[in-house]
């Protein structure tokens, strides 16, 4: 399998809903999915539950505390968090499907990183407190009033669903200092595409469009 190329949805037998048969992976900038405006989830399926479980595993392996669907090349509006980063603390696992942020107030600067640009960190201003409304994996709507780290993570992950990277929100001066590292990610990604290790932007974009059209299946 070509790295960065998500396997197509396939039916095991004709008539059964399509399922994702291939292993997911966290994609790096500038994979086109990281600039995708994701589509709302229409229904909670078994496929979505399996994808979410696998995303938690990938997130823990990578020592992250949040992961958006775009980061595993899925163009759908959901993300997961566990701000403890500890897989043993599963009570801190939360899934946010079709999230909407409201009641933003205050501004606070803090350091952020991202599993799609490993080892790159920068200062980002975020709202200090927010309300987030979303659906969980049972299809139940919920609302949370958040501050501190959970508020920051939810804003960072919601940005992913709109194709926004944390460094887009840095000051020009801070970004200038970081730009060589951002450029290095681009260089590596383009190199992998030139050697065929990673699929071309056209192929990756085609896959995202197919997924949007077909959904996650049953
Ligand atoms: Zn991120």
Please characterize this protein's 3D structure.
The protein has 218 residues and is of the alpha+beta class. The chain has one domain (9-211): Peptide Deformylase, CATH 3.90.45. It has helices at 46-61, 148-161, 172-194, 201-214, and strands at 9-10, 19-20, 66-68, 78-81, 94-112, 122-135, 141-147. It is globular, with a radius of gyration of 17 Å. Residues 114-116, 156, 160 line the site of zinc ion.
Number of helices: 4
Q: How much beta, percentage-wise?
A: 15-25%
Q: Which secondary-structure class do the elements indicate?
A: alpha+beta
Mean pLDDT: 91
Chain oligomer state: single chain
The amount of helix comes to 25-40%
Q: Give the names of the bound compounds.
A: zinc ion
Please give the order of strands in the largest beta sheet. Answer: 3-4-5-6-7
N-C termini distance:
24 Å
CATH domain class name:
Alpha Beta
What is the string of helix and strand elements?
EEHEEEEEHHH
Radius of gyration: 17 Å
The domain count comes to 1
CATH fold name = Peptide Deformylase
Per CATH, the architecture is Alpha-Beta Complex
Low-confidence stretches: 1-6, 8-21
The coarse silhouette is globular
Describe the largest sheet. Answer: 5 strands, antiparallel
Would you kindly provide a brief summary of this structure?
With 218 residues, this protein is α+β, with helices and mostly antiparallel strands. The protein has one domain (9-211): Peptide Deformylase (Alpha-Beta Complex).
């Amino acid at each position: 399998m070509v790295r960065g190329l998500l396997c197509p949805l396939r039916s095991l037998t004709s008539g059964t809903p399509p399922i994702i048969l291939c292993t997911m992976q966290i994609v790096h900038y500038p994979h086109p999915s990281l600039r995708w405006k994701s589509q709302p989830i229409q229904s909670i399926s078994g496929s979505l539950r399996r994808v979410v479980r696998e995303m938690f595993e990938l997130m823990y392996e990578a020592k992250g505390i949040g992961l958006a669907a775009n980061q595993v090349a899925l163009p759908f509006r959901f993300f997961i968090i566990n701000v403890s980063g500890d897989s043993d603390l599963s009570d801190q696992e939360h899934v946010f499907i079709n999230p909407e942020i409201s009641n933003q107030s205050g501004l606070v600067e803090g350091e952020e990183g991202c599993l799609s640009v490993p080892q790159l960190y920068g200062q980002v201003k975020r709202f200090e407190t927010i309300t987030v409304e979303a659906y969980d994996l049972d299809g139940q709507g919920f609302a949370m009033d958040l501050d501190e780290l959970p508020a920051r993570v939810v804003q960072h992950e919601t940005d992913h669903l709109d194709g926004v990277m944390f460094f887009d929100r840095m000051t020009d001066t801070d970004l200038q200092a970081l730009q060589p590292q951002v450029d290095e990610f681009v260089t590596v990604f383009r190199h992998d595409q030139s050697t065929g290790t990673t699929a071309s932007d056209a192929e990756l974009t085609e896959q995202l469009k197919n997924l949007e059209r077909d959904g996650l299946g049953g």
